From TrEMBL:
InterPro entries: DHBP_synth_RibB-like_a/b_dom (IPR017945), Sua5-like_dom (IPR006070), SUA5_domain (IPR052532). Signal peptide: none annotated. It comes from the Bacteria. SUPFAM superfamilies: YrdC/RibB. This is Threonylcarbamoyl-AMP synthase. It holds the Pfam family Sua5_yciO_yrdC. Residues 15-203 form the YrdC-like domain.
Length: 209
C-alpha cells in the first residue's frame, strides 16, 4: 500500500492533521517530514519495531545506530541526556530552536529504549512548527535520519513530491510542508572538555559557541 501524501501548513499546522500523524506514529508508522534544514525520515522513539524498520529502510545496522532525536523544547531533552553543565546549557539556550544538532552524553534511559549501549545522542530542536507539534503531541522524540539523494551533485532532495516517489512504497506518510532546504544542520559535540564543531552546516556556529 502506497504512503499517504499529506500537506500540512508549515507555519500553522492543522491540529487534525498533526493528530493523524501522531496516531500513525503510535501504530509504528515511518514518516518523511520537513525541518528547518533538510527533510527527515523518522519514527516514534518508543516503538522498537518501527526503529528496526527505519534501520532497514536506511540500510543501517541497529547496533551501529547513530540517529538524532527530534525534541520539542529544552525541558524535553532532560530525560534523554546526562546533567548538562552551565556553559553547555547557555549554548543550547542560545541556539535552540535552530538548525543545530548537539551531541550530548545520553542518560541511562537511552540504552534501555534502544537496546544498545548508546553513550551519546544527537539532539535536535528544529525551528519548524510541524516536527515540534508532532513530538509535542506524541510525548516522545522522533528518532530520525536525513533524506539524502543518490545524486552526488544534488546531495539532498528538496521537493516533497520527489521524496514521495522515492519513498512511497517504504514509508507510511510523506508530509508536504513546502520545499525543503539542501544544507544540513551544523553538528556540535558537547561531550568533551571543550565544545567542538563536527560539521558546519546551516546556522552561524561561531555566534553560539
Amino acid at each position: 500500500m502506497a504512503a499517504e501524501f499529506l500537506t500540512i501548513h508549515p507555519q500553522n499546522p492543522e491540529t487534525r492533521k498533526i493528530s493523524k500523524v501522531v496516531d500513525a506514529l503510535r501504530d509504528g508508522a515511518i514518516i518523511v517530514y520537513p525541518t528547518d534544514t533538510i527533510y527527515g525520515i523518522g519514527c516514534d522513539l518508543m516503538n522498537r519495531k518501527a526503529i528496526e524498520r527505519l534501520c532497514r529502510i536506511m540500510d543501517i545496522k541497529p547496533q551501529k545506530l547513530d540517529l538524532s532525536f527530534i525534541c520539542n523544547d529544552l525541558s524535553h531533552i532532560a530525560e534523554y541526556v546526562r546533567r548538562i553543565d552551565t556553559p553547555v546549557f547557555k549554548v543550547l539556550k542560545k541556539a535552540l530552536p535552530g538548525p543545530y544538532t548537539f551531541i550530548l552524553e545520553s542518560s541511562s534511559k537511552v540504552p534501555k529504549i534502544l537496546d544498545i549501549n548508546k553513550r551519546t545522542v544527537g539532539i535536535r530542536i528544529p525551528d519548524h512548527n510541524i516536527p515540534r507539534e508532532i513530538v509535542k503531541l506524541l510525548g516522545n522524540p522522533l528518532i530520525t535520519s536525513s533524506i539524502k539523494d543518490d545524486d552526488v551533485i544534488k546531495a539532498y532532495t528538496t521537493d516533497p513530491e520527489e521524496m514521495y516517489e522515492d519513498f512511497k512504497n517504504e514509508v507510511d506518510i510523506v508530509i508536504d510542508g513546502g520545499p525543503g532546504g539542501n544544507v544540513p544542520s551544523s553538528v556540535i559535540d558537547c561531550t568533551g572538555d571543550e565544545i567542538t564543531i563536527i560539521r558546519r552546516g546551516l546556522g552561524d556556529v561561531d555566534k553560539i559557541v
